[in-house]
Design goal:
This protein is an all-beta fold and about 180 residues long. Helix content is about 5%, strand content about 15%. It has one domain. A 5-stranded mixed sheet has the order 7-3-6-8-9, with no helix packed on it. Strands 1-2 form a two-stranded antiparallel ribbon.
Amino acid sequence: MGPWWFIFLQPYYKEQDLLLCPMATKPYQEGGWAPFAAWRTSEGDSGSYGANGYIINTPPGMDFQLGRPTEGNWRTTDVKGAANIPVLLDALWVNGWPEHYDQPAEFEDWWMDEIGANEMRRFCANRHNGCVNGVFVDFSIRKIELKQLWRLKWSRGYNVNADPPIWPDWMRKFKDY
């Protein structure tokens, strides 16, 4: 699989630990447990941040990327509402393509899903007291409350005003958006 997003950044960092949230440094394969676990690719790279898959600027004529339509991809940083478009966040996997109809995980310690289903779960990790940290297209960095993830503009076609999902017990205490 790959090339992964972090491969393109390797010329700009020296320490692999830069890919690890201090709260999630041990991969699942070494006994890490969600939501405080890092991911590990089949190539052996580890991290605990994930990229919004819709940020990818696929080549013209490429209608699908990893089996997903590319029509919703941003392809540029020169877009209206850049402060609400996530690029990189705390995550349980290296990337994800969230949809407004995705359902949160039933349990707080959930890890991984089937590809192409409920990929918001990859970013909905309670690592920071009901929040994750994220970088946005306008290059701002901020804390994002878990329920707020469903109000971010992940793709061009993402409906930020959709009805929220039915929150599982572990998320009900968090602020609604």
